[in-house]
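Sample entry (76 residues):
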Amino acid sequence: MNKHKHSDEQEHRKLLRKLELSNISFLRIINVENEDADYCFLEAPDERSVEEFHSELGLHCYSIDEVLSISEIQSE
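Predicted structure, serialized as tokens:
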């Protein structure tokens, strides 16, 4: 899961196109309007690949946190 500045619909489409060319799988994106942020849930080999992926799109990740299973998120 990573957090970055809110991206608009056009940026989301770029992100999804870029995913098709990478070894990263999109799971879900959640927009938090009062934070002007998006939380991306991705399946990726490591933190570095998530950071590089977003950087290529001009997005800086404020945080990247490893989530081992979806039940970790649901229990919080």
